[in-house]
Amino acid sequence: MTRIIERNGYFSIEKMQELFKSLGPTVSLDIQSHIVSPVRVGLQGVIKEHFGHDMVDEIFNYFSRKLANTDLTFMAEENSQNIVDLFILLKRKPFD
């Protein structure tokens, strides 16, 4: 990531932190709530503004149904023993 950001040239890295999590076999992930909830938090306001309040529940119910019919085995418990969260704080470089 560092090389990609430096090669871009428009940003400087202010802070970069990798967090390794070992979930262990006892943790059970509810895939839909781990995907749908954060997406809803991030997009609900935009969707409400553009499509109206009545559409928010309908859109996210549809999204949940689509996830239920999607193969998400790559996120299953046995495949997610070690998860890496990457946090990068970028600062836009001034224009020349």
Quantity of strands, as a count: 2
Shape: flat
What is the element string, with H for helices and E for strands? HEHHE
Main beta sheet, described?
Answer: 2 strands, antiparallel
Low-confidence stretches: 24-28
Number of helices: 3
Neighbour order of strands in the largest sheet: 1-2
How much beta, percentage-wise?
15-25%
SSE class: alpha+beta
Rg (C-alpha, Å): 18 Å
Distance between the termini: 24 Å
Please give the domain count: 2
What's the average pLDDT?
79
Q: Residue share in helices?
A: 40-55%
Lay out the secondary structure.
Blueprint lengths: L1 H7 L2 E12 L8 H21 L1 H16 L13 E11 L4
Antiparallel strand pairs: 1-2
Q: How would you explain this protein's 3D organization?
A:
The protein is an alpha+beta fold and 96 residues long. The protein folds into two domains: 1-23 and 81-96, no CATH class; 27-80, no CATH class. Helices cover 46% and strands 24% of the residues. The protein has a two-stranded antiparallel ribbon. The longest helix is centred in the middle third of the chain and has 21 residues, at 31-51. Mean pLDDT is 79; it is low at 24-28.
Observed structural traits:
about 100 residues; alpha+beta; about 25% strand; 2 strands; 2 domains
